[in-house]
Amino acid sequence: MAYNEYSRDGLPSIHRPRTREIWKLDDAGPDALGPSQRSYCELQEQLRTQREELMRKEERIRELTSPYRSSGLPPASDPLLACPSARGDLAALQAKVDSLASKLRQRQIELDAANDSLARQREENARLLALNADMARRLDACEVTRCSAERNGHAVQALQDQYRSAQERIRELEARVRAGLQDGSGLERRHADFVNRVIYQLGVGCAEDLDGLVNKVGELVKENVAMKGRIHGLTDRQSQLELDAKANRETIQRLLAEVSRNSSAAAAAGSHLLNGDQGARAEADRLRIERDDLQKQVQLLEMRVESGRKQLEATRADLQEREARLARLDCERREAAHSSQNSETQMHALLESLASMLSSAYCRVSPTEEAVKEKVRLMCREVKEHSASVAALEERVRTLTRQFEAQFETSRERDFKTRRVECDQIDLRERLRAMEGELAAADVIRDGLKADKEKFYKYMRRLAEALKMDRATADVGFDLLGEGLLARAEQLGRRVGGSGAVGGCGCCDGGGSGGGGGAGAKIRALREQLESKDLHMELLRKKVAQLEAAAGAAGTTGGSGLSSYERERAYKLQRHLEKSQEMLDDARQEIARLRGQLLECNGLRATAIEQDRELACLETTMEKLERVRQKQAKRIAALKAEAEARDRDGGDRRGQTDGMSHEIRALRRALEEARRRERQLLEFRAAIARMLGLDAASLSIPDLDIIARLERLVQAQGGGAYAAFTPAERPLGGMEPSFQSGYSSGGAGAPVRGRSPARVCPACRVARCQCRVPARHRSGSRGRSGRVGGGGGGGASRARSVSPARDNRRY
């Protein structure tokens, strides 16, 4: 809709959105509105009455300017009489419209003043909101300070509890470390006993180290392997000799059979030839001598076979003795492995207990040495961090105090800037109001000019209808309508003059015939039609010439004369209209923004009173918080002194903790040395087992089997170095019967290449598993499977349970 048009309410379109926004306030009740809103309602009622009056007057103007009056008579019946009265009514109505427009502008000014008051109230409310937010931020800062102080107190209490629990854990760790040292010393004693037993069995000097013992055992194993090779060779040779002896027996039997046949043949020949020649006797003697030689060879081979059998039996007995000594050594190795496993189990249990003590509901410590050390270091670091956090919190309190002061200064500067911006906004609003007034005045003037133009055009058309120029009015436009009316008036003037002259002549003649009068009227009518047609054609010719001139000027030089002036004027008016439109759009946007702010003020006005009460409450709360802050400052000072005292105590306790750490490291080194010796012992036992031909990968070989095999191996060697050795049965005579039975069942009675049955794990029921079940659960399986070959399990387990310190006669 154009800005110079009137809507149904009779107001210009530039004022329509503002009145529409004002009419929206009618929905609220009178009780829910404030004083300013009541004034808006009164203004609204006045605007409604004025709008109704304007609508009534507009209807009256439409009736007056309509083609037909309410009387029903056509306007062409008396145009000269109707036009002055209509003009008078129109002027009166126009004066009333102007007065109403001035009243409307006055009401608009009052409305703007009310809007200004609302804007000031909104700004005041915004300032109160900003102050409220600032006070809320200060309250939050005080609350945060109080909460941080409370957290510091809780943290200090938690640190004290953690320190006490750490002291208790340190005491328990000291007890466990002492127990570990005792277990390590026991393992060292058992290792030394095992080495002494091996030295005694091997007959070497006591000053030799484990490498010498391993070398000695290696030599024994090599000799054992060589003896086994010799035994295999002798066995093969014996079997070969047996085969040769068997073949010789068959040959001898065949020869004896042949000799018997020859003797029988010779006897037969002698019976037939009583007096045989001397050659036959000689042949018989030769055969007899050969038979005797063959019998001697058979006897010699039988003697050799018997000596080989005896040597084989001696070798087998030697191997059995060596296997018995190796079985005893295996029993010793198993005992050492069992003791080392017990020590590992105890160490693992110690680590698990330490890990359980150091663990918490949120942090689980793995039972490893590195994890325990890391947890202890972490606890020390936490103590240091808590002490540092107390100092940081004190510094933070000071920083927050400085920030509070800086925020107070910033809020003061912000208030000053806000007041300055409010003054600038008031100036801009005054300028905007002046521009809106100018635009409204320009719209009213433009609307008045357009209405005058429309009324003048209607009057000219009615005049053209009165002058019988309807078709010419429809064909020509507003530009040529005035010239056409002027030409038509000249024609009518000439016609009136001509008709007067013709009437004078008729009077002089004394009248004419009736046919001549009718022909004259017809001629006059035709003349009038011809003149009107000529006038119409002349107007059309002018319009065509004007249009051709305008089109040619626009196509070549841009036009000149009146058309160029009109185009230039139209162009300037268009530019001015565009600028006015842009200014009007900006003004409308500003008005819309101000209206939105006005609507916001309606909601903020209700909360302003509540915020005043809240500000009073906040001031009292701030006073209370200030007192609380002073109390907290005193408490923080006391906590600082207490923290310093605890830091001094913590330094002393850290010294104690460092001493305990040194002791724990010394204990750890001792445990590592014990583990190293235990590994050496296990490697020594595995090397002995491999040299004796046993399964070194299985831990179920008893030490008695290894010792028995070593004894048999040493006894089988013989010589001066081993002449002083006694059989294994002699030292076993003074031992317990259970140990002797275990020795006999696990050592001497074992086959040469017998392998112990696989140990079955009680947890997973799998042989040689890797589940690491503690030794207390596998002791039963050791007792059942700790035998070699077909020996009894109970004797072997009882033999391993005998401590070396209980029977000193064997060593």
Automatic annotation (TrEMBL):
Chain segments annotated as coiled-coil in the UniProt record: 90-183, 277-332, 523-684
Region (Disordered): 733-754, 775-811
Record has Secreted as a keyword: no
UniProt KW Coiled coil keyword: yes
Superkingdom classification of source: Eukaryota
Extent of Gly residues compositional bias: 786-796
Keywords, sorted A to Z: Coiled coil
Name the UniProt record assigns to this protein: Coiled-coil domain-containing protein 170
